[in-house]
From TrEMBL:
Cross-referenced PANTHER family: STYLE CELL-CYCLE INHIBITOR 1 (PTHR34117:SF1)
Segments of this protein annotated with the region Disordered: 1-38, 109-268
InterPro entries: SCI-1-like
Gene source species: Elsinoe ampelina
Domain of life: Eukaryota
Protein name: Uncharacterized protein
């Protein structure tokens, strides 16, 4: 006789089931519910096997950081197996809280995009053979009149290193000129002494005749000095005051000093301009970095708060 009440039928079936079968059924149900945490950090959702494409960048970051593996070097079978293990840890909340942060996923996606762009550039870059072939073609084009170059925007602003290198070259040139002049004067004095010795040969050093010559030279020098003091002050000509060239030479020296002063002021102005350009470049880079940071923060806030 079949009972007309469903509850009595369920009770009948439960009574017919053994305790072992009921305990296995309950434990299986309990294990299935324990696989998922009730609430994940940052209110993240649970992942499935179909989320691999969307979370591939974050999964690759996890493999690189935790397993020291590159996702690009793994085959699809191993990737799927490791993704299954990753989703299990994710859904149970066993990963570090940073992986659940939406900002971490944004950074991982940006990093993956940059790496993808780098690989595209490397793939599209010309090979060495192509570069050599292009170089040969350029060498062939060198024959004949040169083609006009367009698009020149003028000389670039020199940097402080360029100005310092230029000043060093000028200093080396001046030092070389002075060294050459000293060498010429030394050679000239030596030649004068040789000619004087040919005209009036000196006595041998250390002899009595040489001592007498030195004594006479000293007496003549003292006598000329004494006569000069007794004669009083002599008139000094313009040549002695202003140099051998006179007034024109003095004017030329004044113009030379003014020119050097102008060059120093010009170099100082160039250094200041170079410093200002470097400072402006640093400020521009800093502003670009701040703008990029603000854009990333806005994107994170938009994803988190909508």
């Amino acid at each position: 006789m079949v009972s007309s009440h469903p509850r009595e039928d369920d009770k009948y079936h439960r009574e017919r089931q053994g305790p072992t079968e009921r305990s296995e059924k309950h434990s299986h149900k309990r294990r299935k519910t324990e696989e998922y945490a009730e609430q994940l950090p940052y209110n993240a959702r649970h992942l499935t096997k179909h989320d691999l494409t969307k979370y591939r960048a974050l999964f690759g970051l996890y493999l690189d950081t935790q397993k020291q593996l590159s996702i690009d070097k793994l085959d699809e079978h191993e990737i799927k197996g490791r993704w299954k293990s990753f989703t299990g840890k994710w859904n149970r909340g066993e990963l570090s809280e940073g992986y659940y942060d939406p900002a971490m996923k944004v950074r991982a996606d940006a990093r993956a995009s940059d790496r993808q762009g780098s690989r595209v550039i490397e793939d599209t870059a010309p090979s060495r053979a192509e570069c050599e072939e292009a170089k040969d073609e350029d060498d062939e084009d060198d024959y004949g009149p040169a083609r006009p170059k367009g698009g020149d925007r003028g000389a670039a602003q020199p940097t402080r290193q360029d100005l310092q290198y230029r000043d060093e070259l000028k200093a080396e040139a001046r030092e070389s000129e002075r060294e050459a002049l000293r060498h010429e004067r030394k050679v000239e004095r030596k030649q004068q002494r040789e000619r004087l010795d040919d005209i009036v040969p000196r006595a041998e050093p250390g002899t009595r005749e040489r001592q007498l010559e030195k004594k006479r030279e000293m007496s003549e020098a003292n006598r000329s000095f004494r006569d000069g003091r007794e004669a009083g002050a002599e008139e000094v000509g313009d040549g002695d005051l202003m140099g051998e060239d006179g007034v024109e030479g003095l004017k030329a020296r004044i113009r030379e000093q003014e020119r050097k002063k102008s060059e120093r002021e010009l170099r100082k102005e160039e250094v200041l301009q170079a410093r200002a350009a470097e400072r402006e470049e640093r400020l521009t880079a800093h502003r670009a970095k701040e703008d990029k940071t603000m854009e990333m923060l806005k994107e994170i806030a938009k994803q988190r708060f909508g």
